[in-house]
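fyi for ur records
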Amino acid sequence: MAGGAGWLCLQGKPPEIAGNSGLLIVMQTTESLFRFNRKMRMVALVVAVLSVAMGVMLWRHYQLKGLGQDSRYQAPMRHYSTGEKKMIRGNFDGALKEYQQAKSMLEEIPGIDLSQDFYYGIVLNGIGTIHLRVGIYGRETKPSAIKAGLDPDYEKIRESLAYFKSSERIYTTWLAGNRPTAAAITHLEDSRKGKKSEDIVLQPFERYERALSVVYTNLGIASRYLGETQQAMAYYRQALAAWPDQKAAKGNLETLLEAMEPARPDGAAEPVSETAADQ
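which gave:
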């Protein structure tokens, strides 16, 4: 999205993803994949914009709640934040350089375990989001300038997958050893009853789950563009399992399911191929 995410994927231009920084998208690739009418394309663009916005808000939340607890993270994540701003403005090359700088700086910090590091996962998701966004929409910065029927850059989209999957491994690895028991989670939920959402401080496992949700959303977007319809649905559902209120995943899943519905007699909906694209 998606993390800072995008994944966290996020803000006013299509990513995305999701996402955590990054962030997160749906639509028409080749004729052998999906064919969308004009209404569906507009829905897809709206979902993409929401995905990006969600990612940015997610990152901002974590930045306010957690950043600064360890001063070693401040310099690299400052580069990440600068990259995020550049991405929003459409400076994708500049954003990518900032994200890569943040990645390099994190890798040079002694004593941190990158295989489970929350912020490293955010940065990887951010890099993936740039590749995904450019792979799908090219370098157009305004949704109104994006033309329907553009041929996606499948190599760029596949490149984004590698970063998303690396980010996914970080969060799932940490959660495997640190997620509380079901009883402990129930106790935590009971203790929050009656509290306003803004007064609730997320626990570490919740931060990881939400960041993972953004990453899963981005994985779903990339999978759909590669024609892997069933895999895309699985990722969206995993995103919602990790974070049930994640609107980007919910919107993308609904759009995908609508696109797969058989054509109605009045021709309002076009038939959609469920054939997976060759890898």
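Residues 1-17, 20-37, 64-68, 267-279 have pLDDT under 50 and may be disordered. thats all i got for now
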